[in-house]
Amino acid sequence: MSNKYKVLVVGMGKRGQHHAQAFHANPRFEVAGICDIDRGRCEAAAPKLGNPRIGVDARELAKVIQPDLFCFCTLPNLRSEMMAVGVESGAKLIAFEKPVAMSSAEGLKVKGLLAGTGVKAVVSHQHRYGVHYQKVKEIVASGALGRVHTVYGTATGWMAHMLSHLIDYTCWFNDYVGADWAMAQAAGRAKLADIHTSPDYISGVVHFQNGVRGIYDCGAGAPDVPEVPYWWRKCRIGAQGSEGFAEVMTGGGWRAVTRDGVSTGEGGMNYDHDMPPYIQQMADWLDDPAKVHPCCFENAWKGFEIMMAMLRSVADGGQVALPLTSGTDELAAVKAKLADRPVLVTLAESKKEYGLS
After folding, report:
1. Is it the case that residue 284 has pLDDT exceeding 60?
2. Confidence of residue 357 (pLDDT cuts 50, 70, 90)
3. Are residues 156 and 219 in contact, defined by beta-carbon separation less than 8 angstroms?
4. pTM for this predicted structure
5. In angstroms, rounded to a whole number, what is the distance separating the alpha carbons of residues 113 and 120?
6. What domains sit in the chain, N to C, each tagged with a CATH number?
7. What are the φ/ψ torsions at residue 257 (nearest 5 degrees)?
8. Cβ atoms of residues 11 and 73 within 8 Å
9. Which of 170, 315, 321, 343 has the fewest CB atoms within 10 Å, i.e. is most exposed?
10. CA–CA separation, 87 vs 143, rounded Å?
């Protein structure tokens, strides 16, 4: 077996602990350090992680540890700051939470920090490791749907939490073909005050270079997924072709209708199942540059540009050409544009989530 890779995990909230525990459980990694501005979180987590070094300053701790892998699971407004720390640390791979950034200006900073360094980067779109996601991808890739013409994703959760996932998995179903343009509309201002800043509802279309059309519905106005009882997991993601369709429900299995008939299967979002292969493939990529991680930054960037283009369309109207050629603060433009009236929700259950109860 190759030597272990040293890991520093920054952010000891729920997602940071998921990452740290998965690294600790994998024999290819050593959790050498954990960091959080709340030292108590680190002290509570350390015994479960082999008692690594702890700290409250990521840059200082990284200087001491000199990690092979720098992982940050911090709030979304710290992306370029943490990316700079990771690059400065000398890490060979940087893993971080979605979305890539909260604006294209910030995203381009992140991209620029990685450019020319040789540092690998991975973005946490780990739901794909669920057996239900894997099965739908297998069906799409097999050709059983005939000519794929549409991919789609819906979620009742708001944009900064969910749209990145919807776009990434549909791009995966479409083999990460680039997009030509995006167009969108939005409503509702309640979640513009959230740290995961978002319009309450955003809906739009994307035209991919191979002619496939993407359709996205995210937030308060998204359709119900009645097969899934848990509100946060009411996500439906799929592909339609000339001979059928296949779709996955984050909290409710998968189903397909193809030329071979009707088929269904189980599956649900499960960090204990989804995190281990996501982490293992980081070791594989560090071992062998040819084994590119499926959640690599290059793939995530395509989806990020689509999300930013949709926001630009909300603010400016019309179609937005892709790829983007310059950066701006899309959410600031959306804040200036959106009408100050309550969003219309699809589900009564959504009212409390969007400040309407």
Report:
1. yes
2. confident
3. yes
4. 0.96
5. 12
6. 5-126+272-295 (3.40.50.720), 129-269+304-337 (3.30.360.10)
7. -125, 115
8. yes
9. 321
10. 41
